[in-house]
Amino acid sequence: MTAFVLPVPPTPSVAISGSAERFAVRRIFCVGRNYAAHAREFGNDERDPPFFFTKPSDAVVDSGTVIPYPPLTANLHHEIELVAAIGKTGFRIARERALDHVWGYGVGIDLTRRDLQDEAKKAARPWDWSKAFDHSAPCGPLVPAQKSGHPTKGRIWLAVNGAVKQDADLSELIWPIADIVSICSEAVELQAGDLIFTGTPAGVGAVKPGETMTGGVDGIGTIEVTIGQPRS
Question: Distance between CA 103 and CA 225 in Å, rounded?
């Protein structure tokens, strides 16, 4: 047995709908600008090919969590997303076989320190500090694909304190799930346990301490998280 000099950290995981078992998370990949209206609201061309950024696996937190308002920002944004959970290893996966690698789906929120992202863009620096921070990847319970099927349409929405801010349909994805999985696998060998946040629709905006975000994807589930006070 391997001995470690420090205690082994807990394995990040996501709940599974209707089960006491959990889905161990290996890595988190996120797709940028995958809804045309969202691309346009930030002044970008929706015809651009997809690009990816990452979050640490331990950024994932369950629905129902109170998330401390993160440091270094005064402009924390919500981005509701369909999440694809990978269940089978694959490298350079053909598009027509890509969905065979998806174990299931969930509803996630890509929390973003927008002011830090804007600064990074202006300086042509990486986005890491704006995206890859503690508790930045809330994810609701996963539904196995054998139960949900592979969604191609259905409402995706998010509300802040009950007021709807994002409201779109999965049919508006520029790059559907099979394309996303296939393209991502050209750069890395996808592994069981990887999560892919598939992009957010228009309507992203700021959330403040004390505000609660609720959201959902038709046929997949819902999520609810509250932003708490900053850590002292």
Answer: 24
